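User: Hey, my collaborator sent me this sequence without any context and asked if I could get a structure. I don't really work with proteins. Can you help?
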Amino acid sequence: MRREDRVRLEHMCEAARSALRFMAGRTRADLDADLMLLFAVVRALEIVGEAASRVSGEGRTEVAGVPWPAVAGMRNRLMHAYFDIDKEVVWKTVTEELPALLATIERSLVGK
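Assistant: No problem. I've predicted the 3D structure and written it out in C-alpha cell form, which is a compact way to encode the shape of the chain:
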C-alpha cells in the first residue's frame, strides 16, 4: 500500500473514532439540542470523506468493501449544504454505517 494512502486511511480511522466518541451515550435528540455536538460530528464526517476522496484508485482497490463514492459524496453534501444538514442522515451514518466502515479500514491497515 502506498504511504500516502495509508496516511489517509489512518486519518479516516481517527476521524471516525472521534465521531463515535462524540456520539457515545447520546441520542438522536441530542443532535437537535446540542449545536456543538452536531458541529463536531459533522466535521469528523467531513474529514472522513475528504480523506476518502484522496485515496488513490489503487488504494481503493486494496480496501474492498468501502463504498468510496458514497463516503466522499457525504463530505460534499455536508460541506455544500451546511445550513441544510439532515440530522437524521448524520445520525444514521454515525450509528449504523460508520462502525462497519471503521472496522473495514482498520482490518486493511493491520494486514498491510
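In plain terms: DSSP finds six helices and no strands in the chain. You can pass these C-alpha cells on to your collaborator as they are.
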